[in-house]
Amino acid sequence: MADPEIKSYAPHHESQSAAVTESRPAKAVLMIVSFAFLGIFLLLPLIVVFNEAFAKGLSAYTEALTNPDTRSAIHLTLLVAAISVPLNVVFGISAAWAIAKFEFKGKAFLTTLIDLPFSVSPVISGLVYVLLFGAQGLLGAWLKAHGIVILFAVPGIVLATIFVTFPFVARELIPLMQEQGNGDEEAALSLGANGWQAFWYVTLPNVKWGLLYGVLLCNARAMGEFGAVSVVSGHIRGLTNTMPLHVEILYNEYNAAAAFAVASLLAGLALVTLVLKTLLEMRYGAEIAATRGH
Amino acid sequence: MEVRVANVRKEFERFPALQDVSLDIKSGELIALLGPSGSGKTTLLRLIAGLERPTKGKIFFGEEDASQKSIQERNVGFVFQHYALFRHMTVADNIGFGLKVRHGPTRPSAQEIRRRASELLDLVQLSGLEKRYPAQLSGGQRQRVALARAMAIEPAVLLLDEPFGALDAQVRRELRRWLRDIHDATGHTTVFVTHDQEEALELADRVVVMSQGRIEQVGTADEIYDTPNSPFVYGFIGESSSLPVKVEDGQVWIADRPIGLSAPQAPQGEATLFFRPHDVELVDECNGCIAGTVVASRRVADTRRVELEIGGERQRVEVELPVDHPAAQKSRIAFRPRRWKLFPAA
């Protein structure tokens, strides 16, 4: 009589490693759960978005996107991302550099601060700006006297977006730079390079994939941010509405087709980000692995 | 280029890594900084390079005070322990880096840089590997590229931090001879850090033995090995055995018996006797000698190492015997060290 228990441990095909002890049904259940979860919570909504967007046909779709208010929202979103992403790249590199390469007092505190936007609700971040720059706010009177408009205008939206997205680049770079240490930079300096050359020729190439990944994530969030921007924007049509805000307004006006048309652009951005990331990893996989230490 | 380290002290957050270290390095010399980990040898090397600034004291390059100069201004070639090759650059680009980052008229043309890189690759016997990336090289090859890169800037001094530390024994031995050849061919003043005494003694013109942030002894391999000037050097370099003894009337005593060694110059009182386990003379009858009971005997390569228990306090020492020596079979062995040294007990 064959012993079924022993049989189930024998490798059935090559990819099954001997160290895997779960039975086949267990593995199947785990995989089905993961795929079902992703299907229901991620894939299905994505399909619905595109389905609704084209529900009234292609002409309605293009019409919704060429509407002046929509175009202004797209414009504003691109502008906000174009300002906040580069600033956060500069900030992220500086912070990662300081934390990974130097010893100083307050380092742990700085690391915690960088994570703050992840732990604070975006609505609160927005409210903080209202309290700071609003008419009744701390700096409100001074700003008004000098004719500077921040709240309910583009500067406020940019500030809120910067706040919400600033951890992305820094958090990608810090572990990478810490792992790589100072050796390469010291080598560059010993060969006569100045600080800028060491950064440009040595540090930056060493972290470029991590940086690019951080930029992708930062950009996706900058374009998609809703909560903080919603509080500071004032929802002025054609002026201070970003794409996510515009989607909400359209939806609240029962203009579902237009709302989903704009939403499909945002969803498309997410897909492009994903594809870019995958392509990068496929094309430069070996190099990415190499920069993570040889 | 001569390098002079004058009374240098280095503290890291109040903890002294180097205390009052002075060292003269002659032009064209090959010097080894040898010591256990934590002895300050790497700190001293990094101070000479300019990667660290001394807390006190000065470092001279030739006649010039270089203490406050940056590493770029000092023009040193530094080979890092793990090579620190730029992984996204080819071998040729790595070697040419120091020339490429120069400014103005001192910067050679791209063509000239390529030519120099090839020349240096020939020198380190890696011709034809220009287009490889560091990840595609073996450990020994990376080491050679790192050295070629450091030499490309025509450094005043060549500094190497544990140059063979990450390599396996066979490659180490090969590279050791090769480094000596390169040094003889190029004549760079060279300082290297190592914790491997065999490497230091075989390779260097002079060895600097360091311990706990101080220089214990500076000398040629012969001087260091034959006339160690401190208990630390005696214990650290080569095999050694030591015994607590007493000096009285110019004689060395263990407990209440003289052991047949006269030390007229030594101060009276407690002392420690050091000798090499292989440098002993076996005697048949103990008439002023050291005698002990055999507690263990091991065969080590061409000799037999015997552990003896001496005297009432059961001090253990090792001596080495020829493999076929009859004494190895005995339970009690008497000997007298041929060459030995006394240090006052601490």
Biggest sheet of chain B: strands side by side, in what order?
6-7-8-3-9-10
Number of strands of chain B: 20
The rough form of chain B would be described as elongated
Number of discrete domains of chain A: 2
Give the helices and strands of chain A as they follow along the chain: HHHHHHHHHHHHHHH
If helices are DSSP runs of H or I spanning 4 or more residues, what is the number of helices of chain B?
A: 9
What percent of residues of chain B adopt helix (DSSP H or I)? 25-40%
Residue runs with pLDDT of under 50 for 5 or more positions of chain B: none
**How much helix is in the residues of chain A?**
over 70%
Percent of residues in beta strands of chain A: under 5%
Set out the fold topology.
The complex is a heterodimer of chains A (294) and B (346).
Chain A: H1 4-9, H2 24-53, H3 57-66, H4 68-101, H5 107-119, H6 122-133, H7 140-145, H8 154-165, H9 167-180, H10 183-190, H11 195-224, H12 227-233, H13 243-252, H14 256-283, H15 285-291
Helix pairs in contact in A: 2-14, 3-14, 4-8, 4-9, 4-11, 6-8, 6-12, 8-11, 8-12, 9-11, 10-11, 11-14, 13-14
Chain B: E1 3-12, E2 15-25, E3 30-34, H1 41-49, E4 56-61, E5 64-65, H2 71-74, E6 76-79, H3 91-100, H4 110-123, H5 139-151, E7 157-161, H6 169-186, E8 189-194, H7 197-203, E9 206-211, E10 214-219, H8 221-226, H9 231-236, E11 241-248, E12 251-254, E13 257-262, E14 269-275, E15 280-283, E16 290-300, E17 303-310, E18 315-322, E19 332-337, E20 340-344
Parallel strand pairs in B: 3-8, 3-9, 6-7, 7-8
Antiparallel strand pairs in B: 1-2, 1-4, 4-5, 9-10, 11-12, 11-14, 12-13, 14-20, 15-19, 16-17, 16-19, 17-18
Please characterize this protein's 3D structure.
The complex is a heterodimer of chains A (294) and B (346). Helix content of chain A is 77%, strand content 0%. Chain A has 294 residues and is mainly alpha-helical. In chain A, helix 8 runs antiparallel to helix 12 and helix 13 packs antiparallel against helix 14. The N terminus of chain A is likely disordered. Chain B has 346 residues and is an alpha+beta fold. In chain B, the strands form 4 sheets. Chain B has a 6-stranded mixed beta sheet, with helices on both faces. In chain B, strand 17 and strand 18 form a beta hairpin. In chain B, 40% of the residues are buried. The mean pLDDT of chain B is 90. Chains A and B meet through helix 10, helix 11 and helix 15 of A and strand 6 of B.
